[in-house]
Please model this.
Amino acid sequence: MDFRRCKILDFTSHSITALAFSHASVTPDNYAPRTLRLAVGRANGDIEIWNPRSSWVHELTLKGGRNRSIEGLAWIQSGNDLRLFSIGGSTVLTEWDLQSGLPLDHCDCNAGIVWSIAPSPDGTKIAAGCDDGSVVIIDVAGGRGVMLPLRILQRQKSRVLSIAWRGNTQVIGGCADGRIRVWTAVAADETGRPNGVAATKDGVVGRIIGTMRVDKAQGEETLVWSVLTLGNGKTIVSGDSTGSVKFWDATHLSLLQTFKVHEADVLCLASNEAGESVFSAGVDRKIVRYAIVDNKLRRWANMSSRLLHAQDIRALASYESKASNYLISGGVEQSIVINSIDNFIDGVFRKIPVSPQRHSVHSVGGRRLIALHSDNQVKIYTLEKFNTLAEANSEAKNRRLVASLTLNNDENITHAVLSADAKYLAVATNAQTKLFLLLPSQQGTTFKVKKIAAPALAEQGCSVLHFDPSGKHLVLVSPENEIFIHTVGQQDKLRELPYPAKPTEAKSELKQALPYLDNINHLAFSDDGKYFVVSTIVGSVVTYDWPKQSIYWILPRISSTPSVVKFCPDNDSLIIVTTQMKILQFSLSEQALSDWSRRNSGFLPPEFNNLVDKCSGIYIDDDAPERAWMWGASWLANFDMSADIPVFRIPKRKRNGLSVE
Model:
């Protein structure tokens, strides 16, 4: 089989604008909780949820929309519940429903555009810095979906570009006039003991009790892009548009030290849990580490710097626990960069590839068509047949755009698929699903896209789509995780496919905190249309008898998330590759692991097991059904499913009296 690399798709990811870990760092004696997640906000309004386990797994994307951007993220832990909040170029604070991927509620701050947010250490309030100079305190202690404006702090004239809490009673704001202001946000009797923070000077809640001023740029005001309070509450750190990083005495509101090591704006700051190391980054692409060298005099030093990004760095996030510590950075370059706090200068870093782990491409091999969706647009390309290697490597000859479609609604596309005969195109958002007919032009070089009226789909949002092999039925998974079937060309209501009922006992702590783990992430059909398979993020796999549309077999639960689900050409064998780089093959007729999987799944080559980029797809050629080609963002592998993997065992040594043979 010949493989040719074809640069045909103009897929573009989006800048990273915000990062936030779901939990605060823990002491070195404690391991990270199983519910630890990283939220990544992007410039197109999408929010990605990443699991650090299994070498960073992309579990979920909360879809944004046109002209939306995520400018700030915050997690709140309410008991066992994890709640995610965001802001993005508007006057509202949004809480997200992690199960459906839809906004759960909005809270309008009524103070202009919200520039910055920060959760209080006790997890009961969120401070929002606004365009009119106000800081709005929002009470979120009431549980999911409850956001109550508590008070608006004393207004000043400049935008509050960055914000942080000092204990549970004071708020630090970096403003657009080159000043850092300190507000009394909450009275001591509202939070109990003020968490090590001294009582306010005047005892009046909501007043500005102190102001610090940074250096002024030539002819213009300095913008304080980032502020940070260290763990002991005694030190404030700021980064501004002059490239300066300043350390302040939080008790006396006086300047301790200034570092001018950046050549342009400092956009973000982070620190370790003990408050002994601080990291700064910004427009000049450098990440700089500062460390305290004299605790008594509180003196800091510029220890080192690393150039890990090719463009501006917009966000930093840090997390520490036993056996793991992370310094995460992201920006205009679009890649998530993972570094170590403890081994910042010498440690190995990793750039997660821009290409998504769940790719946005759907192909129809028999028609040589590829559909790519991004934001609110779908493009369909045809692959030309190559006669020479030079033609294969020529971008002008190896691809041709045959159809393009832009949705007129604001929501970003969640999924788009072609039918097996390339006659139909289905496109879904979280609000609605649309069906289109592809009509070849007279010359046969392009397609005319015609919308098909389907009232049942007009108000049905969807997260995953798939046509059956006949192309007559479209399977949809709703944001609420329900499976529906739509018959193409009919105006009937959607039919719901039975799904195993969830157990009635109380949810585990993991699923209560992260309810999306039960969400369906993959659909697959056998080529003969006999079987239909559904898998979930948590590792549940259910097979259906498709003609009867009834449950055929519930597979044993898999220990990690399925990253790819694929039927073999024999229409009986099912291959599942997990995020832990395990390959499992099941025989549906026998309802058990296949003979090959029983002999080989535990002995996969270490070169495959140690891959950090997850499997993105599987291809099996009908002419060589025993060979499975698997690929990820940076690798390609081939397995012969008809032969056992060679295993080299060291022979046991035999003892003969006092000697060893």
Helices lie at 188-191, 389-392, 455-458, 509-513, 595-600, 606-609. The two ends are 48 Å apart (CA to CA).
